[in-house]
Amino acid sequence: MGKTSRKAETWFVVMFFLLAWVSAAHATPPSTPITVELSLSHAPGLNEWAILTVTVTSLLDAPGTSVELMLPQDVVAPTTSWSVDLTANTPVTFLSPVFAQKTGNLTLSARAIRPASSGAVWGDMKSIPLNIESPASGPSQHGWTVSEVPVALQAKVGDATVLSMEPTPFAFTQASAEAPSLQPSVTAQQTLGSGSTAPQSPGNVTLTGVWHYGDRSNVERPIDQQLIEIRKGDGSALSPSAFCFTEINGSFSCTFAHPGTTMRVWVRSWANFNVPGGTNRLGVFSGNEVAGGCGSDSIACSYPVQTPEVSCADGATCNVGTWVVSSATGEPWIGAHWMTQDLIRSWKKLFFDTKHGTGSSAGPGRINYPVPTGHGTHAHVPPADGWISIEPPNQQSADIVTHEYGHVVMANLWQTFTPNWPTSDCPSPHYIDAASGPGCAFSEGWANFWAWYSNEFYDGDNSPANDGPIFNWPSGASTNMETRDGGTYQAGDQVEGNIAAVFGDLFDSNNDGPATGPADRLSDGIQHVWHTVSSQSDNNFAEWWMAYWSTFAHAACPALDVIKFNSIPYSLGQCLNQPPNTPANLGQFKSNGSTAIGVGGGTDETTVVLKGTVGDPDGNTVKLQVEVRPLGTGFSNTATQESSLVSSGSVASVTVAGLTNSPSYHWQARAVDSQGAASGWVAFGGNAESAADFTVTSAPPSITSLVASPALPQPAGTAITWTATATGGVAPLQYAFYLYTAATNSWSLPQPFSTSNTWTWTPAQPGQYAVQVWVKNNGSTAAYDTWAGSGSFTIGTPPTVTLTASPTPPQPAGTAITWTATATGGVAPLQYAFYLYTAATNSWSLRQPFSTSNTWTWTPAQPGQYAVQVWVKNNGSTAAYDTWAGSGSFTISP
Length: 894
Fold this sequence. Notes:
Blueprint: H1 6-18, E1 34-40, E2 49-58, E3 62-70, E4 75-76, E5 81-86, E6 92-100, E7 104-115, E8 121-132, E9 141-142, E10 148-149, E11 153-157, E12 161-164, E13 168-169, E14 204-214, E15 220-222, E16 227-232, E17 237-245, E18 251-257, E19 263-268, E20 270-275, E21 278-285, E22 304-306, E23 309-311, E24 317-325, H2 333-351, E25 365-368, E26 378-379, E27 387-389, H3 398-414, H4 438-454, E28 470-472, E29 478-480, H5 484-487, H6 496-507, H7 527-535, H8 541-551, H9 556-565, E30 584-589, E31 601-603, E32 608-614, E33 622-630, E34 641-642, E35 650-656, E36 664-673, E37 682-683, E38 694-696, E39 702-709, E40 714-715, E41 720-727, E42 734-741, E43 746-754, E44 758-761, E45 767-776, E46 786-789, E47 793-796, E48 800-806, E49 811-812, E50 817-824, E51 831-838, E52 843-851, E53 855-858, E54 864-873, E55 883-886, E56 890-893
Parallel strand pairs: 14-24, 21-25, 25-27, 31-38, 40-47, 49-56
Antiparallel strand pairs: 1-2, 2-6, 3-5, 3-7, 4-6, 7-8, 8-9, 10-13, 11-24, 12-23, 14-15, 14-18, 16-17, 16-19, 19-22, 20-21, 26-27, 28-29, 30-32, 32-35, 33-34, 33-36, 36-37, 36-38, 39-41, 41-44, 42-43, 42-45, 45-46, 45-47, 48-50, 50-53, 51-52, 51-54, 54-55, 54-56
Helix pairs in contact: 2-3, 2-4, 3-4, 4-6, 6-9
């Protein structure tokens, strides 16, 4: 995460004063410099026009901004896109008539988007939900209606009998926030249930199946840990209610008293985790801020999607198949199930996080959806009532959903602390990359980080490039909190993106930054961040930092590096960098790193490994530097090799290669920390510097074998691989292969010196040849240091064969016929096998297996049509055959 550019500072300062500084009533998502406002002249009826007005504004000049309408398939408009050069704080308005061609719920959206030079993408998107009616059914209205439970798409057929695919009527009803009698098993192993347990007695029935959903990229994924309710075939409730939960793979198995009717399986946007300390409610509801909504977080207020009507006999187990809540299911159902999975993924991420020990709960998170246009997306904090309001189109961003849940998590943790919330100084709007207030930067930075943490590996769509630190808006706008958009965020602890970057760098395993100076070199997971946030409360990030290192004694100096790396200029006297300790326990080893070389000892290799224990009083990472010189050459206190950075107190290792055969060496070492501070040099061995620390005494190379595969001789056209085996010498040894051709009385170099000890040759012509391999030490300037040869060998011509019979067919049955194969070329002694084809059985049989005999005598017992083949192969050949000949079909008479 680099430095903040001067150009970026200028526009941040401008924007800072342009913001309306108000105390936000609720915690809201961050914005980008571009905003969109969207309005509609009226809710059009079926086949009726209305005027859509799009107003786009930017805090900064934004040339080349793209503006587009995002309309469903059954809504048309004459113009749906524009390109505009936006001038700072100058609104631009576009008008377009729209025409609705289908009744039902639909959404009109508009977005503006523009890539920024920092790598970020600015943009905004607004939506207007509508319910379109025909003149006969009544007026259209703003907002979606929920009048029936939609039927999901079928992905896999089960064995239950499907009776009706029609949806059933539905209306939200006021109900208490009851819990089902059965709660899902939440264990660290996330063990799956069997999913197919049969009822124990007549009077019961078991329904099994699988629920999936189409994610924001319409990729099918399991619905994990959501509530299953069994209903009667007409959609009415059972009494008593029958509940179960999906498993991690979306499967479910519900056993209940047979209702004596047909049935349906509902999946609801409701999850419940029974954990130590109580029940935490997660789900999406037609809650207390939804126009015409249900008003609570009861099961009755969650969004159901159902299977068709099915039948299953008393005492039976029936599989209803696999069903998918998809984009075709429509809103608000698909959005409700997207967000339910977002909440579950976030809650489980913390619960199963092994960095701090499993079992920590993020607390309840209950989403009001959809809230009316203009109501806004926000978390109800403080106090900690767990409610989040989501206005379309923000259901399309898992980052916004988990950002708001992050606010709720903080409020859940702090409801009994003082303060119960950071200082409320947020401007409206607020920005990830610009200064707001100390309290706002802390609360919003935490929420931004919670989206990063929750969506580390998956953020609700099928693009892994957008996961983790990439914060995504529904418009397609994005910012990279890991890099702070190339270091273009404004500096300081009043910028929420900087706070998110600190939390993220303390958490993630992506350690980055320069080799010296402040950088991210921690991979602590969430353990220390969570410990500090969950154990006390703070007004701002500066107070949190004090608690992190002072109250809870987490390692201050490495974390301070992370803070400075993200442009927050804090300092601690105890973290003024001290030089590392001089390295201890110096040792020298052969190239395997484990075979010790004693002081003044020898090695037969030209590579040594030098080791030492390095430590730093500040806890910085440290590397070992060595200076290795031939004996007689004095030290210059300049490192010749160094290790990578290792944690303080670890053993660092340096590999020194390319040493020269025979000379003696001496060496010294020092430690250098990640800030560039160095210890003093310390000589190895405690011996006089005129004495050798080690000597390279490599044996000369020796070739132990030169082998051809397959073994010689071979016919022309055969691929022959030559392998040289050598020992000793200075590795890596170098090999060159030479070929002698008698026909031209000359040597050629088909494979020059390289580290490869094999050469494959396919001779094109028969004749006399010889092969030599030359071997020399690594770095040797000699023509060769040793060699070996094959001696002269023959490459023959490929075999050819003819086949004759005596007496010549046709012949009567009972006549002895001798078949003779006459072959030329090849590698002697040739091998022959004879096969007989019998037309009566339409089959071949092996009558004489491979041998050196080129004849076979056969006395046919039965008249009929026959054929003979001879297969021939070279001596030593592993092929089925190298050539063959056949008689063609002939007759044996009675």
